[in-house]
Every structure is written in structure tokens, then in C-alpha cells.
Write a structure and sequence with these properties.
Blueprint: H1 5-34, E1 40-42, H2 49-56, E2 75-79, H3 81-107, H4 111-118, H5 140-144, E3 154-162, E4 166-171, H6 173-181, H7 188-198, E5 206-211, E6 215-222, E7 232-236, E8 241-244, E9 252-253, E10 285-287
Length: about 290
Amino acid sequence: MTQPAAPTYRLLAELEAAFDALIERSEALLDAYAASPAQAWAFQAEASPEWLRRALLDFWYADGQDGRVTRSHVGLVAATPALLEEVARVNAAKADFADRLAKIKADYPPLLAEAKAVLPFRHPHLHDHLRGSGLARLHLKQCWRAIPVAEAPVARVRLAWYASGRSIKRLTVREVEQKLLALDSDAPHVRIQLRKLAALPSGEPLAQVQSQAPLMRANLFYCEPLEDGRTRRAMNVALPLFLPAPRGRLPDHNLPPAAPPQQRIRARRSDEKLEALPYLPSLRIYRYR
């Protein structure tokens, strides 16, 4: 029995309304910034209302862009209370949009492709400059990623590349076996790895490691300790960071290198839990020490 069409139309209509709200609130934030005398700084660009517009409305795939990768727009904005209110409204709209996308992905996955095709044309001025170039496709993650905000006034900001990040997923031997069998099980290198896996105890936990793309991290040093006693915070900044600044002035900040380091700078921790080399290279599977 097929699912009734009505719920899918309702979900798509709700998603369209959430996207409209996201655009409207983003435009309101941009208008407030353009009317504000607050200071701003942009990484490798000139801070201007047009720069912030490009950053906050960058919802599109670039030609050849990996769907797992998002573009960064690093910068700092000294935000008055009124500007912070607008940022909060945009982030609330982003969260609502993300929730509705998650609902569609869970209940009606094929609807995602239709949403990507329909949503851009609700606001044609956003992608007029992309027409004819094949780039007017929505990058959903770039739509809903939140604008970073410091929760209190900051005395100084230190920006630095973080190039050693990685995600680690804990797997069982059985789960790894299934992943290997999903490859070409007749290939010699897969058979070798299946034999290596069979030599392990069935209860041994394994780790699948994925290196992450370099990203910019901001180290914030607060003017005063927070209620919980914290005096600093580190956060990733893929979008301009809004800093509470009642007087509209940026705190002291550094100028990071133009590109991330080519080699790992931080020394490996002596207590690192994973072995140095992968046990099963095809799947980036490591044993724990």
C-alpha cells in the first residue's frame, strides 16, 4: 500500500515556508548590519554589507563541490544587542528548516530531490547570477548551518587553522565484516583483509577513522568569567562570528595564515588510544591499543 500523497505535499509546503522564513530573516539581519556602524573584519576579503550577504546567503554547490564539504566564510562582526537579536532569529529559522528536512529524510526521502529543485525558484534573485552556469543547486547543509555567536563580550580572539581533526566511529568485528563484504569480496586485497579480520576476537571493538577537512577555529577570551567560571572558549567558525559589542567595536584579534599547514603540527599524544597504522586500510579501520 503506497503512502497517501497529502502528507508529502504538506511536508513540502512546510519546508517551503521554513525556507521563506530563513530568507526573510536573513535579509532582515543584512539590513540591520548595513544600517549599523559596528566594526567588522573578513578573512582575505573586505568586510562590507556585500561580503556578509555573500557569506550568509551562500546556499549553493560550486562546480565539482563534494556534497560532504561546505564552504567557509571566516570573519568577525561586532554586534549590538539589536543585531544579536536578528542573528538569533536567523538561527531559529535555520534550526526549524533543519528539523523539517530531517523529518522528510526520515519519512519521505525521495522528496529531498524535489525540494532541492523547487526551493531556489521561490527566491530567484538569490541565484540569478548562477543561471547558465549549472550551479543553481541548493546545498542543504549550507542552508541550515548556524551562525556562530559568542555568548558574552570578548576581550580578544585568536584564530588558528585546525588541520588534524578526524571523526572516529566505533564498530564491531561483525559490522566491519559486513562493510568488507560490500566491497569486491573476490578482490585479493579484500580477501587478505577478511583473513586479518577473522584473526581477531569477535568481541574486539574497532574504530573507523575519517580525516576532516582543515577548518578555522576561534579561541575566545571573555572580558569577565561566565557564571560557570569559564574564561575562554574554542569554537569552529565556518561563517562570520558575531561578538557582543555594545559600543560596536571589535576586540583585539590576530591575522591567521592564508592557508592551513601542509603537515601535522601538533605532536601525537602519548596516550592516543588507536594504533598508528590502519589494520584494514580499505575501510580506514584501526585497532585500539
